[in-house]
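Appendix B. Raw example, untouched.
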Amino acid sequence: MDKLSPELVFSILVSNNRLKKSDGIILLEGDYHNRVAQAAELFKNGWAPTIVVSGDTDKPEVSSIHSRHLIESLLKENIPAKNIIPEFKSQNTWEQGVEIMKIVKENKWKRIILVASNFHQFRAFLTFLKAMKEFGMQIEIYNSPARSLDWFKLKPGEPYGPRINLLEGEFKRISTYVNNVASFEEGIEYLKWLENQA
């Protein structure tokens, strides 16, 4: 059997990342309210005491809903307002990584859980890994993609095609956004290190 490609190994590892109790859950803006349930469930199950809602782009081709609306959705999920931190500066995934690292540094957090959609989790994680290194930090970043989302079916009102069609574009961005993402190999090495943390 041929050796598995770094892309495949990385994808398997990210999709099966084991969580640890953390300081914050990072809910990335996008994909309507479909990521909210994942973040709320993590909070209610005690994985972290804080949810950071990150991103506030108003470009419909980039994002599908403002972070302010995501906060409203979290409140409807009975997440206390005092446990939600808004991050409204970032306009894209790289800026989200940068702004979150500022929050992590300010609060002296050691662990975070990253929540994106199933198709976006891979690039988001590599972006946050790159941002962490740019800040000269070494924290634990765990992956918890919104697993309840369909890959092949559309919900009424969703403007783009099935999420499976978005996956290819995400991997293309990983190969072209070289200044803003870590490599697959770096991701694998980091996940290996992560697994060995107490």
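End of appendix B.
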